[in-house]
Amino acid sequence: MTLTAQVKKRLVTAALVAPASLWLFVFLVLPFIAIIVFAFGERGPVGGYQPAFTFAQFANLGSRAAAFINTLVLAPIGAAACLLVAYPVAYYLAIKSSPQRRLLLVSLVIVPFWTSLLVRTYAWMYILGARGIPHLLEFVGFDNVRLLNTPGAVLLGIIYGYLPLMIMPIYVSLEKLDRRLLEASADLGAHPVSTFFGVTLPLSLPGVMTGVALVTILLLGEYLIPQLLGGGKVFFIGNALVDLFLQSRNWPFGSAIAVTLVAVVVVVLLVAMRIAWRIAGTRQVDLV
């Protein structure tokens, strides 16, 4: 390839990448830089931001320990619960269902995204509220059962809301699986359970890691589900950020929490990538 051809190729590549790069820089990098600057400032007399350089906001993170603990406990548990529900569904869609039915079933998985998460969460508020399941349980002798405004309600809402995001990466990974490997394992006399753990599961791990990382990262910033199904009793970091920025107007402290949250997300992503690489045997695994 001549020098002129190489220059043209680089110019074309730069032209294709430039719009997305500019968009990310303006709407992601610059706002995050502003958040970092705010994190080292002080709260103004009437709220907002006052220029300063102090680590006091980070030293005060312990005052929101409950939000961090709830998030760091329920987010991984929610991701694990989504995985336990999603893997059998994805396995059936990719391996067991016929090609004629597969498109319909995959469409049914995606259909919930056609409705706002807010509307779906309000529906769960009614189902778990006093006129929902607890009201039905009274007819069989279970009185004073409270489901709404509990960690269990939040966990149920997380599974319902994020299940499609876990199913699809696993489904794509299983759908690409070479069926001849499963046939070869059966021909060699392997039990179906041995085939699953020896062939299917290892080859679908990239999809599993993608789904787990995607759901966990999104849950770390979740606000709506804890707010509606937790009733203010199950506080996530996202709820703390809304309170600090919109109600308390303590922008520096909210920025410090946001920066800490981003650091946690980066750590989670790096750990997930390291585990994926270790399991996959140094093969590249795309997580996002």
TrEMBL record:
Gene3D superfamilies: MetI-like (1.10.3720.10). The keyword Magnesium does not apply. PROSITE patterns: ABC_TM1 (PS50928). Keywords: Cell membrane, Membrane, Transmembrane, Transmembrane helix, Transport. It is found in: Cell membrane. The chain crosses the membrane at residues 12-40, 67-91, 103-127, 153-174, 195-220, 251-273. Its main location: membrane. Residues 68-272 form the ABC transmembrane type-1 domain. The keyword Cell membrane applies. It is a multi-pass membrane protein. Belongs to the binding-protein-dependent transport system permease family. CysTW subfamily. PANTHER family: INNER MEMBRANE ABC TRANSPORTER PERMEASE PROTEIN YDCU-RELATED (PTHR42929:SF1), INNER MEMBRANE ABC TRANSPORTER PERMEASE PROTEIN YDCU-RELATED-RELATED (PTHR42929). This is ABC transporter permease. It comes from Dongia soli.
